[in-house]
Amino acid sequence: MTDLANWLTNDAPHGTVSNLFDAFCRQLVVSGVPVWRAALGLEGLHPEVSGWQHVWTQDSLTLEATERATVQTSQSYLTSPTRAVDESNTRSVAV
User: Fold this and answer.
1) Which of 30, 12, 18 is nearest to 62 (CA)?
2) Tens-binned pLDDT, residue by residue, of the chain (95 aa)
């Protein structure tokens, strides 16, 4: 992991989150970590976008933005543990 830390400190790209996430996942594989798929979700303070979901595989990197206006009515949110946490204001939820 020292090599990975050195890579992050000295050689990682500083352009965009997408570029950094893609390069980081590839570096994990080069370092011997068996990663086939990884996801990175980011919430944002934006008037039209609630957040972004990056999904990485060795063949592709996809990016999906979630519109703020539809987040709390989308099927994925209505059936998610996040909704239960948001509505109960607690951190532990029985699944």
Assistant:
1) 18
2) 788 999 999 999 988 999 999 999 999 999 999 999 999 998 877 767 778 899 999 999 999 887 766 667 778 778 888 788 778 876 654 55
